[in-house]
Records
---
Amino acid sequence: MGTTSEALIVCEHCDTVHQRLALSRGEVARCARCGKVLQRHYRLSTNAMLALIVTALIVFVQANMWPIVMLGLSGQHNSATLWGVIIAMWREDAGIVSVLVAATLFFLPLLKMLQLGWLLWFARQGRRAPGFVPMMVGLHYLNPWTMSEVFVLGALVAIVKAHAYFDVTPEPGIYAYAALTVLITVFAGIDVRQLWRTPGVAA
Amino acid sequence: MNALPRAAELGLIGCHVCGLVCRDAHAAAGAAQVVACPRCGVALHRRKPASYSRTWALLIAAFIMYIPANVVPIMRTASLNDVDDNTIISGVVELWKNGSPDLAIIVFAASIVVPMLKFLALGTLLVSSRRGSNWARQQRAGLYRLVELVGYWSMLDVFVVSLLTALVRFSVLSRVEPLPGVIYFGLTVVLTMLASMSFDPRLIWDGRDTDD
């Protein structure tokens, strides 16, 4: 072996060295020492992943533009969008929370989808996207900080809490968020790192 | 040689960002030298730098934030004839009584069980790994994976308070305001996430008996 090896995998959680395997459909390779997943077989082609990201982006725009829930009390009605939530928290002197919500539910998910879309768009043509290396590194770091799926559960809890005192009407935004959660779950299983080794994309 | 060789024993390093397996050039370059991954350019480390002290510092900071997060109310509900301040636990109790016990259990798990699990699990991992203990290594590795998996779900209550604040704005009739507890709680979640990221699970296996 030279200074690097594509034939080996080092387990991130216990440092054990394994041979990279050719997996067939549905197979998962786990570390023999600690049990961490080392490799998965991916059914989705680059095209399918790109289609998924574009769909997720469209749904994301809708989830952010449309109101999420409407409350009614004695003839008055109030509804809120995600940005309404961010602004409300800012005005109520909870600036840290407002920034956290904006980052984990808006900016970082958007950045993640745009970067993935960009990388996959070029990968589909068998090319390496401009800015490939910094984007791949960036994706690695921002990955744990996107929380749209937690927000959906939070909206459900808020609806049930409000239901005791108000007339609650779900608005289209909540359905867009639910759809987004399904899409996120599908591509959460995708290890972006495979792009480092995709033919034509790898340097 | 061991049946399951470890990268450090073979003079290899797996890049923690892109996963590329590289020959450890630290010895040739001098130990103090920064050696970058040839593929992604991020500095290579045999272990995460200063993992014990960073993880302890973040975990203790998180615990300090966790006390006011539970004691100080997170949300005020004001209506015409009454003002009601809720802490995390009283919010769970109210949800259990007035809404849905199922959701109350989920909120209890996300807001109380998950943060406690993170403090206990990371504390246990830090102490046992520092002592080079070979006790229940498989289970400790599994515990770390669990902490990584469920960690961010604690943000649930922060999102609930934020959404209610934006929704319940009926001037004098009814209003919801966030109270400082929710800020402490948000900071607790972020700090525990940073703590679990700075812990290096390879330390679990670095003890005196590397063979199992």
---
Amino acid sequence: MTDDRPAGIPPNVPGYGAEQSYPPLHQATDAAGQPPQSPPDERSSRRTLTDGEWHRLHPATPLLRGGIAMLAIVGFLIANLRERLVEIFLPGAGEFDSQEYDPLTYVWEHGFVGLALLGLLIVLLLVIGGFFLSWRMHTFRVTDEAVEVRSGILFRTHRKAKLDRIQGVGINRPLLPRIFGAAKMEVSVAGQDASVKLEYLYSRDADDLRRDVLTLASGVKLAEAGVAPRPTVGPAGVESPTDPALTRLVTERVNEFLAPELDPNAAPPESVVRISIGRLIGSTLLSSGTVFLIILAVVMIFSLVNGQFWSLFWFVPSVIGFVSYYSSSVMKSLRYSIAKTSSGVRIGFGLLSTSNDTLPPGRIHAVEISQSVIWRPFDWWQVKINKAGLSAEAAMNGKGNTTILPVGNLSDVAKVLELILDGVSAEALHVELSSAFREPQRSGFILAPRRARWINPFAWRRTGYAVHDGLLLFRRGVIWRKLDLLPLARMQSIAVSQGPLERTFRLASARAHTVVGPISASLPAIGSDEALRLFERVSLAAVEASAIDRSHRWAEKGVDA
Amino acid sequence: MTHPEQPPLPDDATALNTYPGAEPALLPRLPEPQADGQPQPAEPVENRGGPASDAPRRLDLPHSEWRRVSPKYVVVDLLGYGITAALVLIAALVMHVALDQRWIWWAAGPFLAVCLISGALAPRRIRSIGYQLRDDDLLFRRGIMWQRLVAVPYGRMQLIDINRGPVARAYGLAELKFVTASTATGIVLPGLPVEEAEQLRDHLVAVAESRRTGL
């Protein structure tokens, strides 16, 4: 298995000194005290990382995680010794003045060369040993219950993610690890910053490991005894027992940079939604940032006309800032795709650094479709979600990949919603969405009464709610048209409130509480008795929906049946 | 709370009941909420969502018995206001008398006034705090001016805290705090007698456990 060494790793990379000990990944490191469950010959031809024993990570892990700093130090030293090196290899070519005093001259003149070399050797050995140890001590395992990671040399840490609490599994391949053939996998569970990170896995193992972890989490046993043939019972029944993974992965390994971001075998092509580059660029340019930029430009033209040439000093940098912002946000969403795989919805994007998240069924707590007034002529919409396992700051900063469709038309939106919500069909949703947005009076929404115009003068005609198919829908906003869809089975609580002004007009506001995220679902100024009806109806429906919800082990009943 | 000075809004359905002769044709079309995605016949928006009868303006659920918090909590609450107000008053007096800083009353005066008004409304406000244990969820309400009504399914409760401050402890009261996966739920039930609080907690933990599903 020495040919597993990823291309591009120089042979002297620390950590690869452990080459001979790496292949038997499946042997328990024995700290767990568990008997080895599977003799090697019984295993399928692939290594199985989900056999419940401790495995090591990619050998380049210490280098990728902390060793970059050391490379920088080496680079710094080389840059400082450049003149001396030039003098050594090309005598007379450099302007190195050997009379100048520096530590190297001192060492040379006092005959400490041997000592200095020894010191250097010791330091190098220590560093390599440290890397090797940290690689040896950094192990993970996947059992039927949890994903666990142990790391640290002196201070050991042990993190555990319970499988039935998994909210999603993301795989990131930043550019440098990608060159090394490594990938970062993040198993997020409910709770603030409670994710378990597997940094770094072999890139080719990552996708399979994720599928296996999610299959285990779905309640389907990979196998009884820990031997792991391919699961034959997937939620969608698409997995065949003989997996072409080996050949596919080898090809992928070679062509990784050329390969499409989404493996075409992973999802039925009709379920895939993509974004064309033109639409992506157009939607980025038509953002509120551009409006701001235009205002800036007008201000600048005025000040130039008035002879205030210093205004260029702030205008040019801000244009540069905007251009870099635009290009980075376009680059980030390039090769976007969302598709239904056997273990959940997979959202992937990125050109050089790729990233993809898989969300198992029933992990989405709220969905919001929104459209700014600038996008309206183009019928462009954006879809965001709330999911558990996101820290509050990350949710505030828009991190954590909560935008699952950066831009798309209404039929794309309906397709995406069909993927991420259970039990709704794209056609029905498309009809409902277009009527909700275009002719609210004719939609099935229960709208705010006319007296709401005193409080909500522009949007009152477009404020309303609907409850059906286990979903609560809130429609609001004029400049920013918004529609929130909340799966009742995952709503935390519902509140109605009324301030003195609202009471004067017999109005009230409703708000549905979900886990923290970019969406806060609220409905301003609806009739107060209507709000009470909403309250009663939704609180009843939420209880019913969560009583029949089985998404924490979403495929279990498929096995029982 | 009635508003006799407020004329009935002409576009309200109540107006139809008050003056049934005025627009009788509209009466049979009063709303039955339909939300099954089927387009409804076009009807004037203003007739939908209006009260079907002479509905009270305040948010309250029909046929509901609210359980109140202990009246003793009024004393605890008032003591809290009193102590704060006394400290501010002393500080302001010191500023005035010892340092001759008259302007301090511009800051302390409004603060004391707010304390006074809040204290005066405390009995009313505390009477407005109520909860209900229904079959599958907990209802909570509070507020007079700003009313709030929350429903939490039992299965959604992640944990339940009992807090006891020094003054509340002297009166044998405790505060129950309900935590769900959402930070916005925000249910705090102050002023429960300790035994009731503990019983309630044990009951809620038991029902939450029996109804728990995923997150």
---
Amino acid sequence: MNFSVVTTQFWSLVLQGLALGLIYSLVALGYTMVYGVLRLINFANSEIFMLGTFAVLWVEIELLGHPVAAKPLGGFELVYTLVIALVGSMIACAVLAVIVELVAYRRLRARGASRLASLISAIGVSIFLMETMRMFTESRPRTAPRLLEKWSFGEIAGANFRIDTMLAIVAPIIIFVILDQFVNRSRLGKAIRAVSLSEENAKLMGININRVISLTFLIGGLTTGAAAFLYTTVYENTVFNVGFNMGIAAFTAAVLGGIGNIRGAFYGGLALGMMEQFASAVLGSQWKAVTVFVVLVLILLFKPNGLFGEAVQQTRT
Amino acid sequence: MRLEIKDLRVHYGKIEAIKGVSVVVNEGEIVTLIGANGAGKTTILKTISGLRPVSSGSISFDGQDLNKIQAHERVDLGISQVPEGRGIFAGMTVLENLEMGKFNRKDRKNEMDEDLDRIYTLFPRLKERTSQAGGTLSGGEQQMLAMGRALMARPKVLLLDEPSMGLAPQMIANIFRIITEINKQGVTILLVEQNAQQALQRAHRAYILETGNVTKEAKASDLLNDPAVREAYLGTGAH
């Protein structure tokens, strides 16, 4: 154990924790939004993330023609390349999430199947997506081209404000602000809150439940897609089972903040990212995944409703 | 406008909750369904709104078969329900709750101010509380909010499920006074109540429901004077 790193590298660890944690938060949204309206853990979300990382690679390498060995881009070309990769990943994940709902959940729901059936269906979809990708990639990890040169804004108190770290911090915050406004202020956002409060009463308002459910899968897919882009940009590689650890961590983040609660996903992700960074600095990086599981077990044991309690709808008051 | 339920049967799993009920509600009427707990009153309202599937029989509205119409589309046809327990969206403000009532109206933007005015006139209390969270209102205020929210959809028929439940006597009188007022403004009302005294005083016609069957149908005023009904539903201790 090495406690001295906590003092010597404190701000650096905080910055790394923020970046990692906010990526978790975005994926956690995929779990939390869906849980809010369906009371169902969409276990396929981790694999939607995984496919998102490959979508980023595909856009950068195949669509825009930057091979893995390509030199970093600059100026306008860099900006539009990154934007296309981000948007491409978001759209791919959103479309996939909506399709997963249609294929794996909606039909079960229409027949009044139990939640357990949906849960098994979720795990089935998850395995299907992962194994399909395993075949396509022959289990090999893939490297992303370094299109964004990792220059630094500078160093403050030992914390290195690198461009990719900053991107992974700023982008999720912007996404969360937009989403928070959408859910609290827009008509469709209010429909989501209404359904999460009571499906029956929402129907009595004339809300088309199935459309709202598709919308939440769409939003969860969009944020998960953004996370996939940021992950690929920061860590520059992916593999068919990248979703597994990410899924566990993001699910833990969602539960930590209170599953079903949007702001909870934000703070849960942050807290988990920090804990992971500090734990791996002190105990060694082999303890990273252990930290996540320990947090998950502890929260389920002692505070199963999470730090902020359940419910999308309570973001307001 | 005419709401017609014919030979309706509804099941919860294998248990038959509604065993062949026929009810007619004509334009401009206040019709009440009275009966004890578990008689099936709420189930009938939920089935009209499309929240419960019909096992057999039919429900028609304005000559249209409702069986083929999804729950959320029935609101557009002019059927609004104030559910049992009010169903207020607790985390939303009073104004947001009212806006939800208009969720699907095509003309919602143009109608909004006019309808809010109308509802604040009916329920002045709500106007004082527009930005308060729905969950923090008293029971009576929540009932008002639920009724106001249902009226936002400009219903032709309003289905009211136990509006007096859990309210103080003065508030009950107030709510029933407003029900008559709403009816006079041209909204047909189907009222489900355990408070038979108040319901029969306000309604034009009434049905008595016992364990999934209609056992009596008559003018409300006749039932008020019917000894058997007085004994079962209006006697001391009965609500």
---
Amino acid sequence: MVVSRLRRARILMTLALLTVLTGCASQGALLDRVDSDLGSGQPERALESLEGLSDSGRNRSLYWLNRGMLLRMSGDIDGSIAAFERAKDIIGELQAISVSETLAAWAVAEDSGTYVPPTHEHLLLHVYQALNFLQRGDMDSARVEALQIDLGLRRIDPANGRAPRGGDAFPRYLSGVIFEAAGDWSDALIAYRKAYQAYQRQNAPVPRDLQLALIRFTDFQGLSDERDGYLREFGIDAWEPVDPRRQTATLVIVLHDGQAPRLREEGVVLPHPSENRLLRVSLPALQARPSSLTSARLVVAGRETEAELADQIADNADRWLSSLLPGITARVVARNVARDVATRQLEQENELLALLFNVAGTVVDNADVRSWRSLPHRLYLVRVEVPAGPTAWQLDVLTARGGVADQLQGVVSLRPGETRVLGAHWLGRFLDQSRAAASTGSSSSVADSALKDLLEIQQMTGVRAEVGLPDTGR
Amino acid sequence: MHPVLQHVGRWIFVAAVTVGLTACATQVDRVERDVPADLSGRWNDTDSRLVSEEMIDDMISRGWIQRHQGRTGSRPTVIIGDVRNLSHEHINVNTFVRDIERELLNSGEVTFVASGVERDAIRSERDDQRGNVREETRSLPGREIGADYVLTGTINTITDTEGRTEVAYYQVDLALTSMADNTRVWVGQKEIRKIIRRGLFRS
């Protein structure tokens, strides 16, 4: 009786493994469908496809991260804010260690645990939430996100507040932009400094806009030695000093380009060298999805400013994966050994069951290829000073030969001293929702009729709306 | 297996399933407003209520009310201005402002006037009464009471983390400023310190 119970339990275990396997396959297909919908510029359809990914279980954080991003791309900023807050709560709960999941990762499969986003994705969650608040004009809430970025990084590295595998440069840079816009200028300087150090650690070019910000704020704080050091290092000899009573406004546009790299499995199934059993080695590998965008420029009142590369999400993912591979490889070896030992013991009782167990265990032993795929490939940022009042702007996406591949136009109305941050998603072309937000969402309460006039002039003439706009003279 | 043991085993199985199902069901417990419920360690309704109660108690116990009454012969009129959240958490400032309004109003020491958006809504309603409401019941424009003082404030935090322990220090600053000459008549401060110990393991 005892033997039959043992057998029954093992058959059940084998069946359970097969069930997990079926689940993994369908989940992978679902994420591919979300990817494909998004790639074809249909975030609403991608949202529908995402609904198949359960809100419960081990992919909860992945579901809410993707949902927040897709809602944002669909133009539902409030919905996106709610989804990202939910993601934050879930990720907060997942910071503790699960013994059962850790054991499962060593014994069954790499993807058997709950998805816990890596640091660079966690930081980007705060970045996108901040961008949501900024797009809604809620500076105080965006500032909360900037503080949470700092708090999160200080939890990882209490002494320096650095992300050990990078990914903190753009979050710090954006924090500086937020603090500056909120009038917290000493905090802005600290954030800009940390961003500069992070770009250097990542061997990434420091955006010119960040270089100028460092010079402006060290000058404003009277840190002349530090300012002169930056001037020498960046080769800058002219800059606009900080003016607490400025009558102009600031327009910032963040361009979200393409789709983040996805992880795919690279595996091999090998027969055991001496026994009638199978071994499997499966490791995750990064598959970049480069975009055709080569550069972009913002045109305001006839003045062109090039958008600068601010974050390479593919590079962050690459560094993260490289750091994980030794641990993943050790677990692959451990799982093969554990499976081999268990199969050998089963063979003594029932050879067929042992074979089933070995095959099922081998097939189930997948690499963890989950990641926040709806993130962009790269982020560009452009910041310009604009006159207060209604201002027409145009964002050009340029081809390698310098031709304009796509264009986004909008009008923004700003008060003196105000900073407005807008976003645009480009996936081979600008998303329709980005176009709609540019033409309507960015206009605030001031001078609505003037905005309509500007848009009408643009539509009638098909030219950039320099008409009626004062020139900044810079 | 012995039949008695089998019987006991069955009951244990049934009990385990029952306990398991009960654990899965949603359970709602109603608790008194005064019972603190700290779940995440973040700013919550208890903090909002305690801070507003203590700060308004402090505000109305100071001498500025008597000085105002001595000068004008009437109770001071207060409006709530901007209360900014400068903390690292998304705090619903509206509920905090509502708590302050309630405490101010219940104190009976000051006259309290509606602020900002509410005022616009009331004016719109008053405009709507023109032509739609019987004349003897109509409220007329131009009879609003102007505020003597505006209450403004900030919520700030300082956090310190060591391993899985975090200290969150909340500081709420409120200030009452005279609308006539911008003089501060009262400044209040309330601090809350929380130690949050996060578990190392989860299920």
